[in-house]
Amino acid sequence: MPDPSQWAYAMAVEQQPPDVLAMILADAVHRDLATGKNYIQGTFHGVAVASFPWTLVSMVVYVVLTEGYGETPIRVRLVDAEESRPPILETETRVNFPDPLTVMEVVFPWFNVVFLEPGEYSVQLFGAGEFLREHRLEVLLSEDFDRPENA
To answer: How many domains does the chain contain in total?
Structure first.
């Protein structure tokens, strides 16, 4: 009979996904090198634009995670709300959690994000291969841009 003290090593342990404390969309995130603090600039949940296709010059997905175990794959992707097309953007990184109590801040910068049409989009966050959270993003055609100034 196998030694019970060795069972932990013999059994495959599935990696647990981390817990999401925050997920924020912003124009930029500045990291102060002196303090190590992150400063989030220009948060948003939607945009109104004059015409399509439209390019968002800079977009940052800022996430705060905890309850992670070891090296954990973290993936973020931008899709249309119905997921009828391939992702507009997708990126992945690995976050090393020294212990489950560690809180990790992860920044995903995206540049020149092209939206082909107005609608509802979703920024989706995955950890350890599991869906964790999504943040809706409305991209609208603004009629205000068609009006003459001071009308």
So the answer is: 1
- Domain containing 94 — which CATH number? 2.60.40.1930
Residue 149, token pair as written in the block: 């100034």
pLDDT beyond 80 at 10: no
- The DSSP bridge pattern shows strands 130-141 and 119-127 to be antiparallel
Structural domain includes residue 2: no
Q: What are phi and psi of 143, to 5 degrees?
A: -75, -20
pLDDT tens for 77-92 read: 999 999 999 999 999 9
The residue assigned the tokens 């939607």 is: 46
Give the span between the Cα atoms of 60 and 15, in whole angstroms.
27
Q: What's the pTM?
A: 0.84
